Amino acid sequence: MKKFFMIICLSLFLCPISLFSGCGKEDSPEAALEEIKIALAERNSEKLSARADLNEFFSVTYDATTIELAKNYDVYKEKYPDDLYFQHSAEFLTEYNAENKNNHLKFLDEVQKSFFAKIPEPVTPEENPAAYVANEFEKIRRSTNATVKKIVADENSATIILEIAGDNSLRGQFIGEMTFELGFSKENERWHFDEIKNLDELTPALVDKAEIVWINL
């Protein structure tokens, strides 16, 4: 039953690699993204935490993705008859994800620690699963580019719409093209990244990609 975890990982991989460079001296959503981009490139956890609460983001995304999967469970059940994760019911999926949330979030915490500690990639995923996922994140990050399509902002909230596209590498081709709506909020005159706002639109594509990974493991 690792499929849901793969879907979560893909959504979390793709979101921060969609970052772009900002400009200007006043704080802004663009400036927040730029600092997150630098923090990821430098693997600086303190700099990242100043702009995003990863633990909160993981938890919110986990719950939101569960809702989206349950909403369209019958579609996935028919589309993927060989996947046991989708061969029960929406109620089963919701209960299963709730029961395993703490374990999954604990693993994501181990992944981020491995990423910032620059733990070398293991020979096999089984040797150190968290380090393996962290290194995959870095490879995907390097093989993906983003273009800002629109910024909608008011005094205390903002949405940045990005189109991401993979390069010609295998991982880049796997990612393909996707559009993300990233939500930000301002507190104490500082902008922070909060959520992926269009998970309802992204989840079907993320499921398809997770199925490809699952088949080739």
Summarize the structure in words.
The two termini are 14 Å apart. The protein has helices spanning 3-14, 29-42, 45-49, 54-71, 73-79, 90-116, 129-142, 170-175, 199-215, and strands at 144-153, 157-166, 177-187, 190-196. Strands 1-2-3-4 form a 4-stranded antiparallel sheet. The relative contact order is 0.17. Strand 1 (144-153) and strand 2 form a beta hairpin. It is 55% helix and 18% strand. The protein is globular. With 217 residues, the chain is an alpha+beta fold.
Map the helices and strands.
Layout: H1 3-14, H2 29-42, H3 45-49, H4 54-71, H5 73-79, H6 90-116, H7 129-142, E1 144-153, E2 157-166, H8 170-175, E3 177-187, E4 190-196, H9 199-215
Antiparallel strand pairs: 1-2, 2-3, 3-4
Helix pairs in contact: 1-4, 1-9, 4-6, 4-9, 6-7
Task: Produce a short descriptive summary.
By secondary structure, the chain is an alpha+beta fold. Helices cover 55% and strands 18% of the residues. The protein has 9 helices and 4 strands.
* Mean of pLDDT: 87
Give me the side-by-side strand order of the main sheet: 1-2-3-4
Poorly predicted residue ranges: 19-24
Portion in helices? 55-70%
Helix and strand element order: HHHHHHHEEHEEH
Shape: globular
